[in-house]
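Quick one:
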Amino acid sequence: MINLEIKVLAPNLEEIKSKALKMGAINKGSLQQADTYFMVGERRLKLREEKEKSCLIYYLRNNKKESKLSKYCIINVTPFLKQFIKKILSVFWGIKVIVNKKRDLFIYKNTRIHFDNVKNLGTYVELETVFNKNSKEKDLIEEHNFVINFLGLNHLKKVSRSYSDLLMYHSGSDTCT
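Output:
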């Protein structure tokens, strides 16, 4: 699968949430997520654990501040296999870092709007406009840009890296964003 995504540092999540509701986005609720990243070189592999479900996510994405394409694969993991998979991947690859966050999920058409409060990092807004067979790429890019502009994200500090990178290399400077 492919999506177009962007992440910004967002000191005032409530203000942006209010704009999202005015835009017509639907609040899908809050999620507590723990993402265990494994050391697989430049690529990214994580086991996402939530209260009711878990999944293995593999993705490829360039680190750049502007909107970027991300290619990804998600595999749902049964509770029975979750601990086994986590142990095997930890032994073979090693754990890079664990990212704990509270995510409020909003949906606007093909765009997932994540309002994230990441432990030891702060608050962020992340957009993921999902490309699908039923929509034209041009229309999806226009939707993505519309959401950025409506929410005022173009005025906030853009972040190029994943939360895992930020946690590993965060030193209070702008070198990793």
